[in-house]
Design goal:
By secondary structure, this protein is of the alpha/beta class. It has 12 helices and 13 strands. The protein is globular.
Length: 341
Amino acid sequence: MGWFHGLQLVEGECASARLSDVVEPWFLGPGKDSDAGAEFSKGVVDEWPDTRFSDAISDQTWSTAGPGPKLALIAGRTVDNPGFFRQALKAGATHILLEKPGAPSVAELEAMAAEAKAANVPVFMGFIKNISPYFTEALEVANGNPGALVTLTSRNDYAKEDLAECFERNAEGLLKNMAIHELALAATFFGMRADTIVDVDTSGCDESADGCDLMTLNDFQDFQRLDFVLTNKEGGKVRIVADRCGGDECRAIVTKDGEELLNRAMIDAPRQKVVEERMKAHPDWIGYLITQEPEYRELKERCAAAAVRGEFPEGVATIEIAIEALKLAEYLTPLLSARLG
């Protein structure tokens, strides 16, 4: 993820930002002499000659950046991100763009939010779906039809034989990692908070041919697939479907009284042609890097441009929203594990 963010910046896709530094603790540190470290050196360090590389954030970070805002984009493993976050604050970051979910736990993310506030450093969260046309269109339809049910679907294209590696790399779990996007949308736009939920309906798991799998692979337990409907105190409902092995798709469906009002995928027909061409050109890339490429670019540009203006970027999630999404994940994980295990 960090590599892809960097690639878009190096290739000039974000007019308001320049990549001055890359901090890579493993491939430039203990893993430097490994085969992967050699590949990183050849494929990234040598290919980005105008970028300064180091294995740790220091007082030299941003030494070539020049005047203006200094935005730290943090895209490490979730368990490492709180440490990187504090290092960035100490090194003089004026703004932080933090990849989701931000931290392994609510308590850690709340502490990070407090530290950033004390340092007067705005934190932008790496949630991209709230700025994607497929969701903004669905939200408009839902807002115009009170009582409508919005179904938010997220599918990845992992093969089942690759799930053990996926579970380990994303050890925080499906709800805190993959489905955290949908939980953030539910919290932001539909009033779904851990203390407002009155019902979690998992009947969709029973009705689906795919079911909902809670699996243990190499000591890591996680869901392959989930399908549930949240209902809050006001009677609002949101359905969330997440599947690690369901193909590569993000979709929003709006229904009311049995009638489908909208069925919109992130990738529409014109964009599908571009996606197919990009996948053919880069068969070794993880699929969602290509299917969600415009949203990643738009997020960085909004954040960088707003930082230059001294504003908070329009439509971008705050760290407070990330905290609410993480609270939902911590509420739902044990509940769904007990019910579906």
